[in-house]
Design goal:
It contains no helices and 13 strands. With 410 residues, the protein is mostly beta strands.
């Protein structure tokens, strides 16, 4: 199908047009600051093979090349209207990606997008995005949709239809000014398999309403809340994680959260848990008694720099784990740790395992076979208060200094 686009520009403020009186379908209003002295792409990659069929107008002058619209350098605010065919049905992937001059976007009776991947990505000047008349019922992929919209402070998803969406990877990631997402709890996530980096680096979000999220089909959940440094609480007690394979960096740098209820987590398919609770400074207790780690291969930095005072890992199955680098490093409040249930037969790396755990007093490493572990440097570096280690042969010459602790062999 051949798509024709008519783009009309009006040099005025957007308030000069009464949007409420417009009944046409498939319109997008854009408010753009034209103060750049280089070509600006207003729409990306939409039916690129049909560029010769598109009529374009900029300030009343026809522009020959679709993707090279030269803006004025006078700093004026320009009003743009994009008019799409009424029977439009195509991918909207990358449509406005990287347009740094756009301030506002409003959709009018708009539908037909099948993918919105990277649609608004890196629109760093965007402060208003009205999605109330954006029909997303055909969309299957919302990956990176709002990624890098660093000036956007709020989003309302009231009329968002996500029944067919399978991919929400990095959907809101790096929206560093976003302080609220209204009606997030109304999203239908029944078919979503990928939620990795969903809220990554949303540094102004203090809470996220996930009360109606269905995560039963999710496979990738790694870094979903990573670097949400202002989050004070997160309720994941209803998360269905039976199909999740990746949980690495899930709560990475959630330094203001004081508690996590993970009692519903089914982790029997998970293979990666590295940096899962990294820098969770305000969490002092964590109940992981329901965790099944029989398939986990990586636990690097899992609890590093966390504020945990005590940690019971008696139920941890580590038979398949190959790397534990920095797993407990810089846990400054931890005084004792019993790892006697750990099976290290496949463990290859445990460097900096207890690096600068300077209040650690006793450790049980009785099942660790250090002769088979390839990388184990700085294992106890900075553990200045360490007094007792339980181990069958007490061969700790590899640490590179004379041990100042007592080794218990029985």
């Amino acid at each position: 199908m051949i798509f024709h686009f008519l783009i009309l520009f009006f040099i005025s403020s957007i308030s000069s047009i009464n949007i409420q009186d417009i009944s046409e379908k498939n319109l997008i209003f854009i408010k753009v600051q034209s103060n750049l002295n280089k070509p600006t792409n207003y729409i990306h990659y939409l039916s690129p093979s049909l560029l010769s069929e598109i009529e374009m107008y900029f300030d009343g002058e026809k522009v020959i090349k679709f993707d090279k619209i030269l803006p004025t350098s006078d700093g004026n605010i320009h009003e743009v209207i994009l008019k799409f065919p009424k029977d439009f049905k195509d991918t909207c992937e990358n449509m406005f990606s990287g347009i740094t001059s756009t301030k506002e976007i409003k959709f009018i009776n708009f539908s037909g997008c099948t993918k919105t991947k990277q649609m608004f990505q890196y629109m760093k000047s965007l402060t208003l995005l009205d999605l109330s008349q954006f029909n997303t019922e055909l969309v299957t992929n919302m990956e990176l949709m709002f990624h890098g919209c660093s000036s956007l402070t709020s989003l309302d998803l009231k009329n968002f239809v996500t029944n067919e969406v399978t991919n929400m990877n990095s959907m809101f990631s790096s929206c560093s000014s976003l302080s609220k997402i209204d009606n997030l709890n109304k999203l239908n996530t029944n078919k979503v398999t990928n939620m990795r980096y969903l809220f990554y680096e949303c540094t102004h979000l203090t809470s996220i309403d996930l009360s109606n999220f269905n995560t039963g089909n999710v496979i990738q959940m790694n870094s979903i809340f990573s670097k949400c440094t202002s989050l004070t609480s997160i309720d994941v007690s209803k998360f269905d994680t039976k199909n999740v394979v990746y949980m690495s960096s899930m709560f990475f740098d959630n330094k203001l959260i004081t508690s996590l209820d993970l009692s519903s987590f089914d982790t029997h398919n998970v293979i990666s848990m590295e940096y899962m609770f990294y820098n969770c400074k305000s969490i002092h207790k964590l109940d992981l008694s329901k965790f099944n780690t029989e398939n986990v291969e990586r636990m690097d930095g899992m609890f590093a720099q966390s504020g945990l005072i005590e940690l019971n890992l008696d139920n941890f199955i580590t038979t398949k784990v190959i790397s534990m680098n920095d797993m407990f490093s810089s846990m400054h409040q931890l005084t004792s740790l019993d790892l006697s249930m750990f099976n290290t037969k496949n463990l290859e790396n445990c460097g900096q395992l207890f690096y600068y755990c300077y209040n650690l007093y006793s450790i049980d490493l009785s099942t660790f076979d250090f002769n088979k572990i390839k990388y184990k440097s700085h294992l106890l570096a900075g553990c200045n208060k360490l007094k007792y280690i339980r181990h069958p042969n007490c061969d700790f010459g590899f640490i590179g200094r004379t041990p100042n602790f007592t080794c218990i062999t029985s």
